[in-house]
Structures are given as C-alpha cells and as structure tokens.
Design goal:
The protein is α/β, with parallel strands linked by helices. It contains 8 helices and 9 strands. It is globular, with a radius of gyration of 19 Å.
Length: about 270
C-alpha cells in the first residue's frame, strides 16, 4: 500500500508522533466490570461513583487510555498543559432512549439530572480531563457516524499551532450500529455490539524520531486506499501490526500511520 510522500513536498500534510496508544474492544461484561472497578488511569484506584452514570463509550475510552499510559510507563506523568479531543459515535443512545421512556412513564421526575453531563458529546473528554487534571482544551466533536474523520481533521490544526505539548485523541463507538432496546439498555439478541475505543497520544514531530508517525492531509484521498473506520484502526492497534496503513476520509483527505526506525533513516 502506498504511503504518503514527505511533508516537504506536500505542505498541506500535518505530521506528528504517536508517543503511545491503546485500544480496546469490549463486551457488555467488560463494560460491567469497568463500571464496578474502573481502570486505574492515573495509577491509583478510580472511585466507581465517578463512572456510575457514565456512558459505555466513556468506560471504553478510559480503558484504552489506561492501556496507552501503562504501555509507555507514563503512570504518574503530568498532562496539565495537554489537550483532549474525543470523537464518540452516537454517544448516549441507550441513556437517552431510557430517559425518554421514563419521561413518558413518570414525567420530569423520572429523568436523572446526570443525563446531560454523562450522556452528551463532551462527556468523554470532560471525564478524561478531570481524571488527568488537564487544564488545556477539552471537547467532544462530531458525535455522528465515523466521527473519527472529524477527529483527525481537528487534531491536525491543534497540533500545527504549536501551542500544545501533546494531545490525547480519543475515538469510540461500536463495531456495528448500536440500536437501543425498548428499555433503552442495549441491542436485542443475538449479540450486543462490542464497544470499541482507541486512545492516541499525539505530540509534535521534532527532528529525527523513532516509532509511530501520523500524517494527516486535507487533500483529495487516494482512490486505492480503503475508507478509515474505527474498527479498522482498533484492529490495527490491538494486533500491534507493523503500521504502514493509509486510509482515506471521503471528501476530507487521508491519514497514514507508519513505523519509523532511526536505523532506516530519520524522517523530517
């Protein structure tokens, strides 16, 4: 598969380093376990009360974040000046469906006040910002299908500005469409969809680097490449494949992940 050309010949390409990453594909049982015992994102126990009302995608994102932090030995590291961008897919479907049903049955008193902070677009980024004590920008974007496309297009200019030392990019959704059951608790049999999440720690590219590089371009995507999906990205990260992946974002350009070794020559 073709890889993008050097940014020196393509000024529209934004390149950054993926300092660490984590990805999960969770079953309903996994989510139940994380709700009772949240992943210790900061190296210390997270109170279950903090995620009691969280949406499933928030739990999956926390698990992916925990995986990324422990992978790189960053437990205890300070992320005060970092930013957080979260791109969930259809966040809050189950909780909203349940609340609508309760409103129909019991009126306004049947709707929990936790619905807005935990089931809305900024819930994932807000929870992560709180846990990591981040004072930089944090917000959710898109919320629609394939929100990951918008996530990368937002991450690129934020890093290109050079004002952030790093950016946590959190992508979440389901491996197939999550349609709430009548009670708002989830999909009906035969199988509830798996909840997926990826956490990428993006930092500016400074000179010669070794490891994983991310290239983001708003230019027209190459027709030979496949469309970027969250499931494909999660699969690649979980499998820890030698990354030389290029995906197109329909109408928005392309992204590429590639492994770079100093012994093969530095990338600038």
């Amino acid at each position: 598969m073709d890889t993008p050309q050097s940014s020196s010949t393509q000024p529209g390409v934004v390149r950054c380093r993926v300092a660490t990453y984590g990805a999960v594909r969770a079953t309903p049982d996994d989510l139940g376990q994380w709700r009772r015992q949240p992943p210790p994102v900061c190296g210390v126990a997270v109170p279950a009360s903090l995620v009691k009302h969280s949406e499933d995608q928030t739990l999956a994102a926390l698990a992916a974040l925990h995986s990324a932090i422990t992978r790189s030995g960053w437990v205890g590291r300070t992320f005060t000046d970092w930013g957080v961008v979260a791109a969930p897919n259809f966040l809050g479907r189950g909780g909203t469906a349940s609340s609508i049903q309760r409103f129909a049955d019991d009126g306004a008193w049947g709707v929990s006040p936790h619905l807005i902070p935990h089931q809305s677009l900024h819930a994932v980024s807000g929870t992560v910002s709180h846990l990591l004590r981040i004072h930089g920008p944090n917000f959710g974007i898109s919320g629609g299908p394939q929100a990951c496309h918008d996530a990368f297009l937002i991450a690129a200019p934020m890093l290109a500005e050079g004002t952030l030392p790093g950016l946590w990019l959190l992508l979440s959704g389901h491996d197939r469409e999550h349609i709430p059951a009548e009670d708002g608790k989830g999909s009906s049999p035969p199988r509830a969809p798996h909840c997926e999440a990826a956490a990428l720690a993006l930092v500016p590219e400074h000179g010669a680097v070794e490891g994983m590089l991310l290239s983001i371009s708003p230019e027209v995507a190459r027709t030979r490449t496949s469309e970027l999906t969250l499931s494909d990205l999660v699969e690649a990260l979980i499998a820890e494949e030698p990354v030389a992946k290029v995906w197109r974002m329909p109408g928005a350009g392309w992204i590429a992940l590639e492994e770079v070794a100093l012994s093969a020559g530095s990338r600038r």
